[in-house]
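Before going further, learn to read the protein records used in this course. The integers have meaning only within a learned vocabulary of local backbone shapes. To see the layout at work, look at the sequence and tokens printed below.
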Amino acid sequence: MLASRASTAFMLRHPAHCIAFGFGSGLAPKAPGTFGTLWAWGAFWLLDHWLGTAGWALLIGAGLLIAPWVCAITARHMGVGDPSAVVWDEVVAFWIVLWLVTPAGFLMQALAFALFRFFDAAKPGPVGWADRRFKPRPDGTIGWREGFGIVFDDLVAAGCTLLVIAIGVALWR
């Protein structure tokens, strides 16, 4: 099943691929992480009408539980340690950010989006450390450890985003 590039056909071959590719948002030819994060934002707006705090907790918890598996399976089938088309890590991490800043208006959510994308793309400080921590081993094996690593740096980016927002809110008051 090894595929060298992401495609719709590859995504539809396995349910893990579909989830890992953010239901197609990771197939964007440029900046798939940004498109995955935008997909997460749109899904949040849609689902927030039906999900309360407990519903979001369950959805995010389930998303985090399956994240290492879907990311590892897809990376293994592509033969790449951290394929750019895999965006489930961005989706779940940004849902956490939006869930924790809610209630927040559009401007606060847009600020959260910009901060999260900065931390995820630039990988400053702790985000860069988290990104390097779980790279594939020299033997090229891609397993649960590497799947967790794909998710880990995005969770750290979410934490940095929330910290900057909390500091900004504290200074604003």
